[in-house]
Amino acid sequence: SFEGVYNYSIVSDVVFDKSTNANNISSTLTISGTITVLEPSLSLSLSTGSLAQTVTRTYAISPIQYTLDTNYSGAIEVNASNLPSGVSASITNNVLSLTGTSTTEGIYDFSVTVSVGSVNKSFSGTIIVSPYNCITNLNTSDFILVSDATISGNEVTLTPSQSGKKGMIWTKNKIDLDEDFSIEADLYLGNLNGNGADGMAFVLQRISNTQDGGDGTNIGLGNISESFAVEFDTYRGTGDPTTNDHIAIIKDGDVRSSNAHSAYASYVDVGNIEDGNNHRTIINWAASSKKFSVSFDGTVIFDLTIDIPDIFFNGDSEVYWGFTAATGALVNTQKVSFVEFCPPLN
Fold first, then answer.
1. Hey, what's the torsion of the CAs at 155, 161, 167, 169, to 10 degrees?
2. Which domains does the chain have, with CATH numbers?
3. What is the pLDDT of residues 139-152, one digit of tens each?
4. Is the whole model's pTM more than 0.90, yes or no?
């Protein structure tokens, strides 16, 4: 049961008897080789447990199917940190579950480590325990559409697949960053990869609810000062750090500076996200701890402590939030479909 590579040898005395009357002739036979002992690969699948109704969402990083080695019968140990009070982690039949009831309000970035012998697997995610009845149906009276943006139900088309288009959607009223917020949406960045552009952004800004950040590689963000943004960039323009699509945190609409893409967190290369699919995106802000996180397609890509009001808005906590997108000579249909956001807008 001890992992490692073992070089072994077996030494045996061999006796040859030429005849019953002859002297015995003795010799030694040595057999050698290598045995490799590997720990079993600890694996499991993640599933959501029966959490309280006040828990609005759970998600986990890379929910990949794993199975424990059937020849291994060692004890399974589960350790969790920063779960809400009343919620616990357990594993049954190789499935990790989070179960329980919690009324302790907050946003909890948790981690779970499962161990078998010396093999460890760690997972993390976020649980939101909220007193709010989060909104699942978009009320158009709560938002302002700018330029080419159109709306149908919960789906906002920021740009059609035409050149030189730009679209923005902003909250009609400001929110207060002294309070937590969470936004869950499906981002559709088109289906044209090599000939597609330009991308979209989630933006906090305090100027007005009619801001227009420009078309092309501005992605509707480039001219908005006093802003905090998460850009989902699908075209390599001036200052972009990679030829692939990428996600980055941007201050004051500075989309053309290579240094700006990693000023607050390293940009994330996401390959191609102009793949004709919706990309589930969850954005969380915990006011008391100044924790900001972004989950994209089930993976937490940003999880940082940052004082957004102080660094980006000179201490002002009241901002508009919204999404922007643009096309230039190259095009893509770009849409955001709202799944849920809380607290409700005033």
1. 10
2. 4-37 (no CATH), 45-129 (2.60.40), 140-342 (2.60.120.200)
3. 899 999 999 999 99
4. no
